[in-house]
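[audit] Reproducing an earlier prediction to check determinism. Same input, same settings, fresh worker. If the tokens differ from the archived copy the diff job will pick it up downstream; this log only records the rerun itself.
[audit] input (121 residues):
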Amino acid sequence: QVQLVESGGGLVQAGGSLGLSCAASGSIFRVGSMAWYRQAPGKQRELVAQGTSSGSTNYADSVKGRFTISVDNVQKIVYLQMNGLRPEDTAVYYCHAVLTPLDSEIPNVYWGQGTQVTVSS
């Protein structure tokens, strides 16, 4: 059974940095993409950053130049380095992955359990 396990997050002052990581475990044949989403109270979940197995990346405009995503296709881990954090970055951050299990040729979407990031002003 494929699972995404997140680590990192916590409380930081505005202007500070935090790192998140998410490891995919289980019988995985192929990584399609891995990404981070976030959801603030009262708001919809939104894409923060995405990295594909081919090496391309995509960022929300609000985090460009401050956040960096990297995907390790071999270890099946995605990292998110967050610098210059702002109070508006406060949210629950969710790991998202499109992975093809070993027993299937069909990619599936997986979500992590979420990790809280709080930025104080």
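[audit] rerun output stored. Observation attached for the diff report: The chain has a mean pLDDT of 95.
[audit] end
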